[in-house]
Specification:
Length: about 160
Amino acid sequence: MKDLLEFNYQTDEDLIGYELLFNNLLKSTKEILKIDQILSLSVNYIDPLNSKELNNNYRGKDYVGDVISFPIDDDFGIYEQLGFKEIGDIFITFDEAQRKAQKYNHSIKEEMAWLFTHGLLHILGYDHETSEEDEKEMFELTNKILEKQNLEYIMPY
């Protein structure tokens, strides 16, 4: 059995071309982090209105998020009994990705790759908002993963 990425389109944008890229980024992430378990997650493309609503309802933030992640906690050990581990959901707002790509002079492919990788690391348990050390670790991992796919992303801040 291979990893399962489920893609949900809640936008009119044609984003099917990112499916292969995200699968490759997942593979690179697993190699770098030495994850042997089969993973299952969803990638949801949403419009700005839904993004702002999710961000407000679940994070208490009143703006359109570029990527919002919801990890699944397995407090009961259910996934230890199965042949895979469900890790969570990633929500990407393509309109916001386009805006940021233009603002920071990245290609849309680089921006989408960064957003997916960032969201993936969050649902794998990484967090850049807890300390400077955690932030450094998460962004260094992001760069390693992108480099493995011959992508470069220069942080704008």
